[in-house]
Amino acid sequence: MDWSVGEDSRRYTVALNDSDGALRLSSVQHDGMELDSPEISITRDDHHGRLRVEIAGTPRLAYVAKVGDAWWIHLDGRIHIVRAHEPGSARTEPSEGSLSAPMPGTILEVHVKEGQRVRKGQTLVVLEAMKMEHRIQAPKAGEVTNLHFSEGDRVDMGEILVQIGD
Amino acid sequence: MTSGPFDNAPRPFGTVLVANRGEIAVRVLQAAREAGLRGIAVYSDADAGSLHVEVADDAVHLPGATLAETYLNPEALISAAGGCGAEAIHPGYGFLSERADFAIAVEDAGLIWIGPPSGAISTMGDKISARIRMLESGVPVIPGAELSVPDGADHLGALAACAARVGYPLLLKASAGGGGKGMRAVHEPKMLRTEYEAASREASAAFGDGTIYVERLLSGARHVEVQILADSHGNCIHLNERDCSLQRRHQKVIEESPSPAVDHQLRQAMGDTAVTAAKAVDYIGAGTVEFMLSPKGDFYFLEMNTRLQVEHPVTEMTTGIDLVQKQFEVAAGLQLGIVQSDVCMSGHAIEARIYAEDASKGFLPVVGRLALWKPPHGPGIRVDSGVRQGDVVTIDFDPMLAKLVVHASTRRAALRRLDAALADLVALGVTTNIGFLRNAAAHHAFASGSVTTEFLDSAPISEFAEPGADPAVLVAIASAAQRLGMERAPSDDASGSVDEHTGHSGDPFRTLSRSFP
Fold first, then answer.
1. Tens of pLDDT, residues B74-96
2. Does residue A91 form part of some domain?
3. Is pLDDT above 80 for B457?
4. How far apart are CA A33 and CA A152, in angstroms?
5. Nearest chain A Cα distance for residue B346, angstroms
6. Which of B274, B431, B496, B513 has its CA 20 to 30 A from that of B359?
7. Do B143-216 and B352-445+459-481 show the same overall fold?
8. Strands (E), A21-119
9. Topology, domain B143-216
10. Which of A40, A48, A79 lies at the smallest CB-CB distance from B490?
11. What does pTM read for this prediction?
12. Residues of A in contact with B399 (CB under 8 A)
């Protein structure tokens, strides 16, 4: 299994050793390179969703929960998301210039047509969601190559609304 | 009916229907139980398994798929009350809480309305009429013109003339508005039309009334509001102020009491003015008079919220007065039982609103299932929550999951307690603003008590960015969690005494712990 942290597309591989019920980190690699890492030992805890994590001799508690392919981790008062990937699977780099719906909602206004030149920051589409209007603005100057929705359409989170080419 | 707490009151009732959902419904239903009242919840299909239904003595289903058919449906709510023997309706906040026609309909149906008189709601609810009434009563209002631009009239001509008179930058506000909806700042004339249209549309969608008015945008101001309580016997007192200057796009993020910008003298002046404002509309019940406080220490009436406020807990924590209990007592026709000199102010309380939103992506609301939800607990920590572990956060309702409120002897101690409690709040499966709240509260501008209402909107988001963690540690934990099969369902959890919903384990202060939508 390969792993990535948060929005970062870097992939890591992890090797753990089982000794006396504790999982000890033996190596973390990124692109075949061994990473420096502290001594880490992880054991189950009686509480649901909780692990005992000893990092460089300091004991901590981490809460974990799996949602889809991602592990959500609460450690030291901060929440992190670590995603699992099939080894060698393609990295999904979001294509620059694709604007997706930030949340489910309804297309209220479409300000551009396919083929139109737009400047950076220009409002392309207005999306209504959670009773508020959100302006989808061009992240860069360019040409509208694809426009996937029209006014009144319902969109789901993550759907590509507009694509902008150079 | 069995004997109730208000049997001998002028307007007795023993059963209250809570016409709301989420944390405020939970809060009011728990208060009802505490008071010895029977509490009835209402719920739409989407809320059939929600926490507020669980904590109620009984619950009535509201058929229909939309808000207009359910929580915003006066007829359905009143008939629900009739069907279950409720004698009073508590509207919570939002939804129908500030609809005068609903208050009238409730009373016409022979029920007790746990809220202010309909006349006070309608005068204060229309921001234009409220401004005029305040001016008449000698309450200072924000400089500007009370020009109303009626929906459907020649907006742009009238608007441009009014905008020119008020001057830029200005604020367009929905006359029927609140909560930042239908409110837009305009910094230059060329943006007037676009912003007006957006504001009017938002106002129409949110309040069914697209009327907009123009007000000068005060810069460098703080948002300070005063809690008031009035009974039907002519008694009206204030319960000190709350400072809600930490806002994002006019939505409050962190609230506190007392305000770091208000001294004893100013507190008295603002409190007296708030009482004057409330008396000007013959107010009864719990209400909040909102002011803008200028850097020079001048304050101006902003609006009055004729209902319980989201941030009411900070006042409860510092005064020891339970506002919902007082609402019940006042609705039953009892006297307040306290006078102004009885109101004390002990220590410092801060509330942080926990939202399902992604601060790194422009604070967009997010959806998902709360796979793990463990609220913090300990002395001086109160969590008012409308969700529990396993609940699904949808876009159907407000993205506020809970309110974390802390109380300590000083502001510095309260800030430390807030940070520790936010760090202890485990919310996995749905992205929340918890990390952002920690960073915002720790920001030197907030910590020093010097933020204005513009602070969050003008500070670069990078100032609140999450600190990175060692990726080796995180991937090791994820990999170990996978190996150990940590994804299994929590059904075989060795659940101890900790209540999964409230996070309280036999806490003696449990009565002060509640939760939101």
1. 999 999 999 999 999 999 999 99
2. no
3. yes
4. 50
5. 29
6. B513
7. no
8. 22-30, 33-34, 40-44, 50-55, 58-67, 70-75, 78-85, 98-100, 105-110, 117-118
9. Dna Ligase; domain 1 (3.30.1490)
10. A48
11. 0.85
12. 130
